[in-house]
Amino acid sequence: MYCNNYRTGMMFLCMSLLLLFSFMESQAERLEVVGPEAPLVAVAGEDLVLPCFIKPNTSAVHMRVEWFRLDVEDSLVHLYKDHEDRDEKQAESYRGRTSLFKQELQKGNASLKLSALRVSDEGEYKCLVEEENSWYDDITVHVTVEVLGSHPVITMESYDHSGGINIVSSELQKEKEYAELQRQRVEDGNYI
Ligand SMILES: *[C@@H]1O[C@H](CO)[C@@H](O)[C@H](O)[C@H]1NC(C)=O
Ligand SMILES: *[C@@H]1O[C@H](CO)[C@@H](O)[C@H](O)[C@H]1NC(C)=O
């Protein structure tokens, strides 16, 4: 009699656990983290939003959101857990330049705002969203940083004797002008 009750009890416990696990699994299968398909291109100095959100619409307020660099070792960009931002282990170069959109977290939007873009920000970012002991998913966001004015300015200098056109970049132009100045100084005899 006791034995039967014990076995029934165990069976009930097993069934409950099975149900619980399959429920957790189905929950986990439903959720996914999504982000931009194409690389993000932005200009140095500007602010950039790196998109990352949970689909379907699920609150991430109680979850752990971790943004880190994939191509730079030990480079924690932003960490949110236990309902707050944790910057103890944040990489120095990102200090004071990152934030999440707190209102948006309720809608599962864990997008990162990165301010005053630097050339060194270019690279691959991982957005990892985790619900402790139950589920996690991540995406990779590629960021390309462009520097305005870094491309040499092409100017037309003159027609050469063969009827062609001399095209020089402004950098080259400056070098030529400097060389010419040096040459004149030597000629004038006042070169120090
Ligand atoms: C997400 O859920 C919140 C709260 O349930 C709701 O206010 C919001 O409109 C939803 N957003 C989308 C895109 O479904
Ligand atoms: C997430 O929040 C950012 C900042 O408010 C917004 O630009 C973006 O459109 C949001 N993404 C989604 C999927 O709601």
TrEMBL record:
Domain Ig-like positions: 29-144
GO cellular component, one term: external side of plasma membrane
SMART domains: IG, IGc2, IGv
Chain segments annotated as coiled-coil in the UniProt record: none
Keyword Glycoprotein found: yes
Presence of keyword Ubl conjugation: no
Signal peptide boundaries: 1-28
GO molecular-function term, one example from the UniProt record: signaling receptor binding
Domain of life: Eukaryota
Primary localization class, coarse: membrane
One BP term from GO: regulation of T cell activation
Pfam families in the cross-refs: V-set
The entry's keywords: Disulfide bond, Glycoprotein, Immunoglobulin domain, Membrane, Signal
Name this protein carries in UniProt: Butyrophilin subfamily 1 member A1-like
